[in-house]
Amino acid sequence: MSHHIVEAVNLHYTYPEGTVGLEGISFRIEHGESVAIVGENGAGKSTLLLHLNGCLTAAMGSVRIGEHAITKKNINAVRRSVGMVFQNPDDQLFMPTVFDDVAFGPLNLGYTKQEAEAKVNEALDTVRMRHLSRRPPYKLSQGEKRSVAIAAVLAMSPDILVMDEPTSSLDPLSRRELINLLKQFQHTKIIATHDLDMVMDICRRTIVLHKGKITADGPTKDILRDSELLHRSKLEKPLSMQACPACGAPKRS
């Protein structure tokens, strides 16, 4: 299962206008791990994720997906292993219908039309959106768009699922359905998010970013119990770990 491993070594990235995005990021994620990337706005979360499938290229350092370093030569192999769900689903949905959007990936990977159709139906069934297959994406709700964007990634059978703020703009029911869906995905998951309650539900490990650097990396419960660390990182404990505002009784530990 080495193809599921994600390893970054001394990643540095500076945006063209001079903003430092990453400053010496190193970590290794093993097969089957569910890892949260957390931090305040501008900490480098999205910048890091965009390095994991080659959308951005580090000025210094390297990223390896399984046996492949991310290079121009290996980028197609990497993108077959890494499924990326962007923060804004509108960045992924551009075809006339939901079916066409979900079929785009498999067809470009060389599947026949029949094979692609089977992949599409399976992926849409997984996210419970098959009834919308002929609907134009722009007519979907935000939660429906998010589910279709996930289906478009699942249709390519990735080994590693990378997601940027997957629960943002979702209503409570859609959020819970997404969390339950992610629990079913057995391969490696890397999720950048501000939703620390979702992190508690899905991710056993959490990496904290602050100003482009890793300031903590460890078991999620230990990270989220560390009030001083969270304060330095401009984060708060998840609501499920905060005391009841009415009676002051402690919640989940």
Question: How does this structure look, described?
Answer:
The protein has a domain at 2-90 and 159-241: 3-Layer(aba) Sandwich (Rossmann fold). The chain has nine helices and ten strands. The chain has helices at 45-51, 75-81, 98-108, 113-126, 142-154, 172-184, 196-202, 220-225, 227-232; strands at residues 6-14, 20-29, 34-38, 60-65, 68-69, 82-85, 160-164, 188-192, 205-210, 213-219. It is globular and about 55 Å long.
The top level CATH class name of the domain at 2-90 and 159-241: Alpha Beta
Percent in helix:
25-40%
Give the strand line-up of the largest sheet: 6-7-8-3-9-10
What percentage of the residues does DSSP assign to strands (E)?
15-25%
Question: Which sheet architecture does the biggest sheet show?
Answer: 6 strands, mixed
- Please tell me the CATH architecture of the domain at 2-90 and 159-241 by its name: 3-Layer(aba) Sandwich
Q: How are the SSEs ordered, and which strands pair?
A:
Elements: E1 6-14, E2 20-29, E3 34-38, H1 45-51, E4 60-65, E5 68-69, H2 75-81, E6 82-85, H3 98-108, H4 113-126, H5 142-154, E7 160-164, H6 172-184, E8 188-192, H7 196-202, E9 205-210, E10 213-219, H8 220-225, H9 227-232
Parallel strand pairs: 3-8, 3-9, 6-7, 7-8
Antiparallel strand pairs: 1-2, 1-4, 4-5, 9-10
Short description:
The protein has helices at residues 45-51, 75-81, 98-108, 113-126, 142-154, 172-184, 196-202, 220-225, 227-232; strands at 6-14, 20-29, 34-38, 60-65, 68-69, 82-85, 160-164, 188-192, 205-210, 213-219.
